[in-house]
């Protein structure tokens, strides 16, 4: 498998800062993460009306796990130091402008706002936001499945 070079300077920095680590590339892990993401999307859709905050978090988790699947395929894994932002940074560097994938950081920020609300400016998640997050997560899964099937998406190193 060829080396994936797009965004390599950002990935190298994330590795150096220990926000990502190199692991054995694992197609099975990538496949399991995609399957989990699809279940999260289904659950988010089912719970949008009754629990918009929970449904939004599930949609975001679906997008993040999908992105993590792409990294696993490349032999990369976020560390607890890098966390969710490392996933967003790595994906934005490597796959800029790809529908769904480009939404991960936006979803992450909104999910954080809902999870850690500012009492001076409470802004509850709406069902419209859940619908948007579900659509973005679904687009993320679709894009990732195409990338995972493409022979040019190889290991990072």
Explain how this protein is built.
- There is one protein chain.
- By secondary structure, the protein is mainly alpha-helical.
- It contains 6 helices and 2 strands; from the N terminus they run αβααβααα.
- It has a two-stranded antiparallel sheet.
- The longest helix has 23 residues, at 127-149.
CATH H-level homologous superfamily name? Nucleotidyltransferases  domain 2
Q: Given the C-alpha coordinates, what overall shape results?
A: globular
Distance between the amino and carboxyl termini: 10 Å
Largest sheet: 2 strands, antiparallel
Arithmetic mean of pLDDT: 92
Radius of gyration: 15 Å
Q: In the CATH scheme, what's the topology name?
A: Four Helix Bundle (Hemerythrin (Met), subunit A)
Percentage of residues in strands: under 5%
Specify the CATH class: Mainly Alpha
State the total count of DSSP E strands. Answer: 2
What's the architecture in CATH terms?
A: Up-down Bundle
The helix content is: 55-70%
Summing up helix and strand content along with how strands pair, one would put the structural category as mainly alpha
User: In terms of per-residue confidence, which ranges show pLDDT below 50 for 5 or more consecutive residues?
Assistant: none
Order of helices and strands: HEHHEHHH
**Whole-number count of domains:** 1
Strand arrangement, major sheet: 1-2
What is the count of helical runs? 6
């Amino acid at each position: 498998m060829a080396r994936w070079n797009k965004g390599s300077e950002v990935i190298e920095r994330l590795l150096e800062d220990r926000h990502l680590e190199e692991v054995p590339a694992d197609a099975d892990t990538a496949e399991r993460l995609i399957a989990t993401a699809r279940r999260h999307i289904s659950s988010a859709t089912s719970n949008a009306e009754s629990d918009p905050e929970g449904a939004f978090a599930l949609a975001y988790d679906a997008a993040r796990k999908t992105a993590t699947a792409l990294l696993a395929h490349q032999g990369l894994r976020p560390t607890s130091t890098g966390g969710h932002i490392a996933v967003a940074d790595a994906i934005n560097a490597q796959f800029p402008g790809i529908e769904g994938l480009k939404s991960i950081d936006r979803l992450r920020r909104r999910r954080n706002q809902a999870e850690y609300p500012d009492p001076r400016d409470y802004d509850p998640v709406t069902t419209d936001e859940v619908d948007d997050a579900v659509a973005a997560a679904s687009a993320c899964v679709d894009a990732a499945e195409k990338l995972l099937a493409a022979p040019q998406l190889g290991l990072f190193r």
